[in-house]
Amino acid sequence: MTDFTPTEMMTIAAARQLTSRDVCFVGIGAPSAACNVARLTHAPDITLIYESGTIGTAPDVLPLSIGDGELCETAVSTVAVPEMFRYWLQGGRISIGFLGAAQLDKFGNINTTVIGDYHHPKVRLPGGGGAPEIATSCGEIYITLKQATRSMVEKIDFYTSFGHGDGGDHRARLGITTKGPTLLITDLAIWRPDPVSKEFTVVSLHQGVTRDMVQETCGWTVRFADDLEQTPPPTELELTTLRDLQARTAAAHGGSKKGN
Amino acid sequence: MTDFTPTEMMTIAAARQLTSRDVCFVGIGAPSAACNVARLTHAPDITLIYESGTIGTAPDVLPLSIGDGELCETAVSTVAVPEMFRYWLQGGRISIGFLGAAQLDKFGNINTTVIGDYHHPKVRLPGGGGAPEIATSCGEIYITLKQATRSMVEKIDFYTSFGHGDGGDHRARLGITTKGPTLLITDLAIWRPDPVSKEFTVVSLHQGVTRDMVQETCGWTVRFADDLEQTPPPTELELTTLRDLQARTAAAHGGSKKGN
Amino acid sequence: MAQFQSLADAVRDNLKHGDTVAFEGFTHLIPHAAAHEAIRQGITDLTLIRMTPDIVYDQMIGMGLAKKVVFSYAGNPGVGLLRRMRDAIENQYPRAIETVEHSHAAMANAYEAGAAGLPVAVFRGYKGAGLKAVNPDIKSVICPFTGEELAAIPAHRADVTFIHAQKANAKGDVLIEGIIGVQKEAALAAKRVVVTVEEVVPDFKDLHPNLCILPHWTVSAIAVVPGGAHPSYTHGYYARDNATYLDWDKISADRELFTAWMQEHVLDATPEVFAERVKGL
Amino acid sequence: MAQFQSLADAVRDNLKHGDTVAFEGFTHLIPHAAAHEAIRQGITDLTLIRMTPDIVYDQMIGMGLAKKVVFSYAGNPGVGLLRRMRDAIENQYPRAIETVEHSHAAMANAYEAGAAGLPVAVFRGYKGAGLKAVNPDIKSVICPFTGEELAAIPAHRADVTFIHAQKANAKGDVLIEGIIGVQKEAALAAKRVVVTVEEVVPDFKDLHPNLCILPHWTVSAIAVVPGGAHPSYTHGYYARDNATYLDWDKISADRELFTAWMQEHVLDATPEVFAERVKGL
């Protein structure tokens, strides 16, 4: 086991949560890296789905976009986008959806739409894309996020996607039958919602991380589990797999092109 | 020009109504023969669609069913059946739909469902299949039928598909925006709906057919157009094309097989 | 997860008395071998869903397996009527059956809605049609933007769907090509999916990326039954046996002839006979 | 009926000031060359529909062509924000634009409903989501069987849809393969359809029967523009130019740099330059 970065730990901790039986709706960035590390290590039969319609992909390189060519070339099948959203996502066939966040609250509600007022935003962010329905149609939701007080906030500016709302049985009260956020993996810790209140609770600290470090980078008062665990550090295989994947990716996407 | 049967005249008269610009939803039997005769004579670029999902087919042999293999093999594209009904039929992309009838009334309403009461039928017929929506989603409807008092009736037992209802603007009152039945071709005559009342009116008698012959085989009091025409008899080309097609078809479908 | 099984085991594990079941295939790829196995196992009180009941349900109805049929075209395509189904409806022979009748568009939309996880299919249909008056499952919704009244019927959600397909690969992914009908929708709309295939190949590596494929994790069981669609057909393998469809009109017209035929060709037969039947087609 | 035209003629004949237009392609097959031609022709007051506005709309918005944008993800995929679109929303530069924001699922369903000739798309969506409160086009219908409240939004019905595809045949049938996105739906939902293609081949005789094809009679105009999707890509022809997507972040961050880039690479260019751009990809 060598040195590793907090982001590498986050990605690998997320990868470990996945099994060969999972069907994952993968987003770009950390989720894509985590899912492919899982596929290349302990979960070779995991099914990865990107919302471009590619089902069962096995890219050699991480895609820059969710519609890169290699996703299609290695997929079991590539379907139209309406079919993707109707038969596969809405049809309840995805076990795990990954979401990132610009702002996250302690109940797993996510904002990637605007900072400030919706109609007069301070910052116009990209918006939801698939997130509003990923959040409610997938069996459960895993969130990955680098901790910062700017992003882990007491109150988000906009509900791009619904987590546990105000907590408790808020999902059920809206008629949502899926579990919602069941896992938050940051660069510092692993969090799970309290079974009753649904407030995210730290259940495992990554190596070298203290409670204070978690609290200092989080905008709400952090709850820690009584039986707080320590996240095992990345194994040699995990780290090598992730770094090789990222090296292949960097080589493939290149930097600035000559001309044009 | 040789001798011909009334059914041949019916098929050829229907074929003549079609052009290379038409997109036809084809049923089995006379419509299929008519559409393919048109394609093989004056309308080579006509688009034939069968509800099995085959778009732009050009079969060498008339299919026994709407899903025979040759339809797919010669099609421009074969789509799923939900797509066929949603994007192509409901989407308003079919200019002409063909329907046959077990019972037909003078307003082009059709019954192919039951003779007698629906819940206690004297004869249970096959039912509508695609007809209910063909009748309302196609630009216009052509009906082919061999005349008989049993099938051309004052009142049909069941509205499998809607023609002009009680006549007049009944379609518009139901919110239907397509033209409905604009042509009835029988083995004896060509009929068109009156522009106002929508009652089918004989506009052309096939060769050798009298007004009495039409009335004797029709269960309602027949209206004839003031400027009643005579249907030109089949040309050599039309007749040869139809008979060759039917000969190829008979050879292909064979009779009873040995064994099994 | 797809399990490779014998047809007898696949039917036994997935089809239960009283189930709602779809045997789909639009003229092409009708899963006759699977239906014959259900008949041999004597599984009854079934609710049968199919757009065109075709010979496959005429046989199941004639053998008394069905208590209810949901359908849109009860004909022998290109030939005429379904005589065993008629006998059940008109004369309650061999038993009374309940019928729920739709249009093709409605049935296709109901499978689509089932695959899409929706409770209801919404489409423009049944305008002026008589079925609205006799089928209480036909309701409507109003478009909140235009005020148009659209047809609404319940989504199909079968307990199990049976289909026949060209190929499975070693993982259990299933390929359907040619006239693909409503099989993908019927499969994804069901709780369990049983697929009979012509053959198993190692992988699908050289296939076009956009073909109709059911990934292995959407399939419950796969049974290899060459010829398993006969007298329907399998694009790329054998042609439709139109002569048998024509013959069926006579066989099904007579209760005794039907019973004798079913005894010889179904009850006393095995899935292996299907390969023999498609030789030369 | 498909007419083979130059790109300039195809755009001139089919895109009018004030039109509602979709340039579709999900990451793959984005019709950049057609958009550049629209920019050169200075067609303004457009309502632009697209799931991910991407660079293609960032450029059109930055050049002041858009009065309204209907979208679901305003990002530079995998890179970050769309800076020209942000500038228009945050600072009304170069003009104010109206936005109608949806989720991907909603946009895909709205195209599907448009292709299906329906006024409304019905799906399970927006539960607990904030967009419901800020987009008055998001309404609901109640399932008449279960009572479930489902989302309802207006179908997309563009005046014209532009797409890029691999091939047309001599008749004008169009083949799309690989990541097929929502192009078939976007095309069938529009009154007019303009397709740029990599090449024209005599016929499609040996293609698989179930490929995504728009028959010639659904297409208004076809223009041959090799490389016409760049920096997006065409499966089977050239790869996505990810470096250009990364570079765009810098170019679009600065108004003057953007203007100079558009002058050189769009206004002073022709469709022929696209073939050059994809060499080596």
TrEMBL record, chains A, B:
Q: SMART domains, alphabetically? A: CoA_trans
Identify the Gene3D superfamilies for this entry: Glutaconate Coenzyme A-transferase (3.40.1080.10)
- Which SUPFAM superfamilies does UniProt cross-reference here? NagB/RpiA/CoA transferase-like
Which residue positions does the secretion signal occupy?
none
Give the UniProt keywords, A-Z.
Transferase
| InterPro entries, per database record | CoA_trans_fam_I, NagB/RpiA_transferase-like
GO molecular function list: CoA-transferase activity
| Protein name, as recorded | 3-oxoadipate:succinyl-CoA transferase
UniProtKB/TrEMBL annotation, chains C, D:
Domain of life where this protein originates: Bacteria
What keywords would UniProt list here? Transferase
Kindly name one Pfam family recorded for this protein: CoA_trans
Which residues lie in coiled coils? Answer: none
- PANTHER family per the UniProt record, alphabetical: ACETATE COA-TRANSFERASE YDIF (PTHR43293), CHOLESTEROL RING-CLEAVING HYDROLASE IPDB SUBUNIT (PTHR43293:SF3)
Q: Which InterPro entries match?
A: CoA_trans_fam_I (IPR004165), NagB/RpiA_transferase-like (IPR037171)
Q: Which residues cross the membrane?
A: none
Which SMART domains does the UniProt record give? CoA_trans
Q: Which SUPFAM superfamilies match?
A: NagB/RpiA/CoA transferase-like
Write down what this protein is called.
3-oxoadipate:succinyl-CoA transferase
Q: Which GO terms describe its molecular function?
A: CoA-transferase activity
What organism is listed for this UniProt entry? Devosia limi DSM 17137
